[in-house]
Amino acid sequence: MKGWALTFVLAAVFGLCVGPFYWLAMAATHANSDIFSWPPRFYPGDQLVANTAKLEESIGLVNVLGNTLFVAVVQTAGAIVVSLLAGYAFAKFQFVGRNAFFVLLLSTLVIPGGVTIIPIFEMMNDFGLIDSFPALILPSLSVPFGIFLMRQSLLAIPDELLDAARVDGAGELRVLWRVVIPVMRPVLAALAVFLFLGAWNDFLWPLIALRTPEMYTLPVALATLQGLARTDFGQVMVGTAISSLPMMVLFLVLQKQFISGLLAGATKG
Amino acid sequence: MTLTLSRPGRVAVGRRSLVTKRNIPYLLVLPALLGFVGFKAYPIVAAMYISLTTGAGAARSFVGLDNYVRLVNDPLFWTSLWNTGLILVVQVPIMLLLALLLALALNSSLVRLRGLWRLGVFMPSLTGLVAYGVMFSVILRKDAGLLNWLLSLFGVDAIDWLGSPFWARIAIVIALTWHYTGYNAVIYLAGLQSIPKDLYEAAMVDGAGSARRFWSITVPQLRPILLLTVVLSTIGTLQLFDEPFVLTGGGPDNSTLTISLYLYQNGFRYFDFGYAAAIAYALTLIVAGFGIAQMRMQKR
To answer: Which residues cross the membrane (chain A) (predicted)?
Structure first.
């Protein structure tokens, strides 16, 4: 195929992929009644502010965004620390049970989430943690993929580099902080984006673990909106656009790290 | 604790007893270990026990294999299994083939603006499932939906995407394909770029045409990655939940009821935890079976 023909095909695919986002963004600026006019409105309207205000009224947009951001940031930061520490141990230390634990950890990657969800729900219920943020955050702190990714990347760091610091009298935490983390920055960024994406978009578990609308994260709040008999799509579209926006921005800014992080898991898994 | 006898004849003093050179790796893996035991190992065992019981809390009673007997005789379970298998068999091959073609095109030096297309193609896989579920439920509406409008330009009559059992399944397939094709294409692209260039150059010197180069170099070199995506997509599809949950709720007429959705309904709509756990274990068996079979193929 000639270059221009291929380029044309790719442009069409691009349109199919990005088109829905464009339409979504446009729909967010129209009133409910106009969203479904034929032909569809591919141009901006003047209802963005009104739709946003309605969304704030029905789900408490600001509060829900705050919840989502808080949970996603804490969960991401926690999982990164856990992954880095464990990955460091797996890559740079010999200890009894190392290989067995590592294999066990990885094997849980293929266990369907559905299996663990009921016991975790009962556990959280027993601890009185249902409808709290710890219920959302705690189960996601030990992420096998993250630990695996950290171990793989740390294996590539020469031991001499670490030993040099140790000879200078640095403790292990200091070695981690001063030597390992600076070298690992791109991988850590990739993992951070990956984990943040997962936490920001998480749906099933928050849906089960949260009870009161004040605690809802954005995906859960949006899902409840859609269940209403007469959905006001203007506000739903605003909410959906808002929930997609951070990921788009994060991805555009960090795309190189993001894809390399994704591939580290994919091509070596 | 002030004095600890760590080895015969040796005395360690104070806090030094915990942070020793020998203990460091254990301390480093401790958080991960706690998470693993608390939220993976324990729940997996607990779910096994729950699947042998009925009721919840104080009213829980042991019923042996009753839930599994009920499962085997439950037509809805078989429906969910059939639906999941159908989506798997139709959607995964279509998606992976499209992803491969897309990766080949994105890798071609003849194409202009490759970076832009690459970015756009990857965007759908960044969308949260609720966001994209909402988006698709609107795009797929029978009246005034975006897709039906697009089709009407070509003279196609309005299709009841979410209201008819046949089209609802197609709608799920379309949504899945839209969401995950770009993700797989990017994985393939990385694979393509890691194939040594001199392999192609040598083949061209030997007079191999582009088709020959594709089948004799590209496909064998990509084989591990191709198999990996098959395994990942299969496991993912077997656990399919979000799309039917948001788009169709499993309907119409249970035509898009998947195993995970059925699990969710029993567990968190009817609060029949024992039965839901039995479904979860059946699902685990299926996933493990597929996983092992595909790994075997990979080894050969």
So the answer is: 69-90, 102-121, 133-154, 175-200, 233-254
| H or E stretch at B128 | none
How many other C-beta atoms can be found within 10 angstroms of the C-beta atom of residue A48?
A: 17
90-149 of A, contacting B, C-beta below 8 A? 90, 93-95, 98, 101, 104-105, 108, 110-120, 122-123, 138-139, 141-142, 147
> In the 8-state DSSP scheme, what is residue B158?
P
- Whichever domain contains B179, its CATH number is 1.10.3720.10
Mean pLDDT of chain A: 85
Is the pLDDT higher at B5 or at A5?
Answer: A5
Residue B151 inside a domain? The answer is: yes
Q: Which domain holds residue B84?
A: 74-299
Task: Give which of B138, B147, B144 is closest to A232, Cα–Cα.
Answer: B138
Share of chain B above pLDDT 70, in %: 93
Architecture per CATH, domain A58-225, reads as Orthogonal Bundle (1.10)
A260 vs B71, residue with greater confidence = B71
Q: Are B290 and B85 in contact (CB under 8 A)?
A: no
For residue A232, give the amino acid letter. D
User: Above 70 in pLDDT, residue B2?
Assistant: no
Q: Which residues face B62 on adjacent strands?
A: B53
Neighbours of A104 (CB within 10 A): 15
In order of A208, B245, B257, B273, the CA distances from B265 in angstroms are 11, 10, 10, 10
Percent of chain A with pLDDT over 70: 93
- B276 with B155, same domain: the answer is yes
Whole-number Å distance between alpha carbons of B232 and B238: 10
**Taking the mean position of all CA atoms in its chain, how far away is CA B242?**
11
Contacts of B291 in chain A (CB under 8 A): 110
CA of A146, closest CA in chain B: separation in Å? 10
Q: Is residue B45 part of a domain?
A: yes
Q: Are B84 and B262 in contact (CB under 8 A)?
A: no
**Average pLDDT for A172-186:** 85
A132 pLDDT above the threshold of 50: yes
Largest CA distance in chain A: 73
Confidence (pLDDT) at A228:
53
Can you tell me which residue has the tokens 């279509």?
B94
